[in-house]
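Thread: "does anyone have the structure for this chain?"

Original post by V.I.:
We have the sequence but no experimental structure in hand. Need at least a predicted one for the grant figures.
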Amino acid sequence: MKIIAFTGMPFSGKSEAVAMAKTFGIPVVRMGDMVWEEVKRRGLILSDETVGPVAHEMRLKKGKDIWANRTIEVIEAMDRSDCIVIDGIRNIEEIDAFKHRFGEDFFLVAIVVSDEVRHQRALARRRADDSDDINDIIDRDNREIQWGIREVIQQADKSFSNDGSLDSFCLEMKGFFESL
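Reply from O.Q.:
Generated one for you, C-alpha cells below.
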C-alpha cells in the first residue's frame, strides 16, 4: 500500500490536490478531521479560535505525533487499498511516525505557494475553521511554522508550485495521480 501525504502552508492547495485524488477513487484521510473530532468531543464549535489551540494543546500533552498516530489508526482500520492519500502533515515527528509505520511506502508531497497568493485565497475560502481577518491568518501561519511545517516542506519527496491558476494546478495533480 502506497501512502501519499500532502503538506504545505495553510491555503496552499492541499484540498484541491486531495479532491483530485478522490476523482481517481483514492481513499483520503484528512489529519484535520482528527483535530475536528477532538474539538467536537469537547463540545466546542469549529472555528479558527478553537481548532488551532486544541491541535496545539494536544501536541504539547500527547506528543507532536499525536495526529499522525490517530491517522495511522484510521488507516489501519480501513479496507486495504493500493494507495491512500493523507492530507495535512505539519511536523517532522508526524513524518517519522508515518515512516516508522509505512517505511518506503510513505511518499511526501509539498504544495508550495507564495504568501501573497495564499493570503488572498484565505480571505476567499470561507471554510468553517477559517478566519476573514488577515491578522488571524498570519497568526495561523506562525503557529504552523512553530510546529515545524517549513522543515516538513523541505523534506518533501516531490514539490508542486501552486501560484498559478486552479486549472493549471489541477492538470498537474491529474498528471501526478495518473503516473501512480
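V.I.: this helps a lot. The first strand starts at residue 2 and ends at 7.
O.Q.: and The two ends are 12 Å apart (CA to CA).
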